[in-house]
């Protein structure tokens, strides 16, 4: 299984994603650093099985049906090494079950500082 790690995940963590049967490459090492999400996903589609990212907006910016790749989103409270590292074993375990054209989220779904969705703002409890 071929895994690509996005540039928002520090390259020094790449070895921690490796395991039996996994070929893990960082986008920087692939020469894709700086590419926009759509261009990057197109380049990885069909050549990699899973794309690991910390970009929580990716699924809202791209139509994942257009790309033949699964996305594993690592979502710590802050995208820093000390908070990414403990989520890596869960991310690696998710590689086997991640579905192409969809996002599998590892970590927190929302942070306490996130605003409520518009539909919930100003609404009163029933």
Describe this structure in words.
- By secondary structure, the chain is of the alpha/beta class.
- It has one domain (2-120): Rossmann fold (3-Layer(aba) Sandwich).
- The protein contains 5 helices and 5 strands, in the order ββααβαβααβ.
- The chain has a 5-stranded parallel beta sheet.
- α3 links the parallel β3 and β4.
- The longest helix has 8 residues, at 37-44.
The proportion of strand residues reads 15-25%
Shape: globular
CATH topology assignment: Rossmann fold
- CATH class placement: Alpha Beta
Quick synopsis:
The protein has 126 residues and is an alpha/beta fold. It has one domain: Rossmann fold, CATH 3.40.50. The chain has helices at residues 27-30, 37-44, 58-61, 81-84, 88-95; strands at 2-5, 23-26, 50-53, 70-75, 103-107.
Blueprint (SSEs and pairs):
Layout (H helix, E strand, L loop, with lengths): L1 E4 L17 E4 H4 L6 H8 L5 E4 L4 H4 L8 E6 L5 H4 L3 H8 L7 E5 L19
Parallel strand pairs: 1-2, 1-3, 3-4, 4-5
Labels describing this entry:
alpha/beta; 5 strands; 5 helices
């Amino acid at each position: 299984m071929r895994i690509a790690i996005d540039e928002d995940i520090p390259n020094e963590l790449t070895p921690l994603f490796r395991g039996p049967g996994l070929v893990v490459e960082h986008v920087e090492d692939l020469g894709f650093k700086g590419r926009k999400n759509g261009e990057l996903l197109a380049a990885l589609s069909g050549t990699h099985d899973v794309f690991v990212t910390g970009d929580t907006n990716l699924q809202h910016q791209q139509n994942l049906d257009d790309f033949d790749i699964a996305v594993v989103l690592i979502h710590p409270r802050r995208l820093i090494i000390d908070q990414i590292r403990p989520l890596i074993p869960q991310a690696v375990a998710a590689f086997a079950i991640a579905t192409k054209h969809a996002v599998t989220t590892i970590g927190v779904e929302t942070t306490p500082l996130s605003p409520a969705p518009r539909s919930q703002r100003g609404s009163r409890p029933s």
